[in-house]
Amino acid sequence: MIRVVVAEDQWAVRSGLVMILESAPDIEVAAEAADGEQAVAAARRTGCDLVLMDVRMPRKDGIAATRELVGTGTDVLILTTFDLDEYVFGALRAGAAGFLLKNVDADGLIESVRVVARGEGMIAPAVTRRLIREFAGAPTAGAPAERADTPGDRSDPGGWERPAASALAELTPREREVLACVGEGLSNRQVARRLGITEPTAKTHVSRVLAKLGLRSRVQAAIAAQERGLAP
């Protein structure tokens, strides 16, 4: 059973999300939260698998809440708008497992939660190209840039260190193929089909790629693949 905390400050939207998630036989809504502080407290109290996190919330926004939760064993799936809230860049820096559009349909919402719960990253297709373009155009590590903690600052939206060419050179040919697939936004299952390997093997390769490159998420790996020309 996948246990989820739903964090959304608008009651009507939150209720709709809860209703959709609870219609799935393998998902349980462990708690609801109306702001970031409640989301962090609920995640710690319930020991949930992931938090479905709105970005703009009172008291503590979704980015600050994500930063607190990353590393505790609780994944965060960010809810954003098509226009890409600039908070989303902070979410990537904080280590969010994925980004989901608020206009997602019921089936898409449920499957996204399942994907993240399996340990994979998830980016809504409509967001992927725009998100990668934003990061690919940002200054690389070591270049002068202002802090990215403040919403609206796009000088260095990621705030993370891009892997050096030497790190990429340490990847095996298979790992480079896997990185290229991640750069296209493929899930572990899709990577397995593309490369003719099993899904657990694909997952292992992805984990090794992240470790070798010093990255925290598949989203960062996708951006690295794009920047290095490994993915279209």
Automatic annotation (TrEMBL):
<dbReference type="Pfam" id="PF00072">
    <property type="entry name" value="Response_reg"/>
</dbReference>
<dbReference type="InterPro" id="IPR011006">
    <property type="entry name" value="CheY-like_superfamily"/>
</dbReference>
<dbReference type="InterPro" id="IPR058245">
    <property type="entry name" value="NreC/VraR/RcsB-like_REC"/>
</dbReference>
<dbReference type="InterPro" id="IPR016032">
    <property type="entry name" value="Sig_transdc_resp-reg_C-effctor"/>
</dbReference>
<feature type="compositionally biased region" description="Basic and acidic residues">
    <location>
        <begin position="146"/>
        <end position="156"/>
    </location>
</feature>
<feature type="domain" description="HTH luxR-type">
    <location>
        <begin position="164"/>
        <end position="229"/>
    </location>
</feature>
<protein>
    <submittedName>
        <fullName>Response regulator</fullName>
    </submittedName>
</protein>
<feature type="domain" description="Response regulatory">
    <location>
        <begin position="3"/>
        <end position="117"/>
    </location>
</feature>
<keyword id="KW-0804">Transcription</keyword>
<feature type="region of interest" description="Disordered">
    <location>
        <begin position="140"/>
        <end position="162"/>
    </location>
</feature>
<keyword id="KW-0597">Phosphoprotein</keyword>
<dbReference type="InterPro" id="IPR001789">
    <property type="entry name" value="Sig_transdc_resp-reg_receiver"/>
</dbReference>
<feature type="modified residue" description="4-aspartylphosphate">
    <location>
        <position position="54"/>
    </location>
</feature>
<dbReference type="InterPro" id="IPR000792">
    <property type="entry name" value="Tscrpt_reg_LuxR_C"/>
</dbReference>
<keyword id="KW-0238">DNA-binding</keyword>
<keyword id="KW-0805">Transcription regulation</keyword>
<dbReference type="InterPro" id="IPR039420">
    <property type="entry name" value="WalR-like"/>
</dbReference>
<dbReference type="Pfam" id="PF00196">
    <property type="entry name" value="GerE"/>
</dbReference>
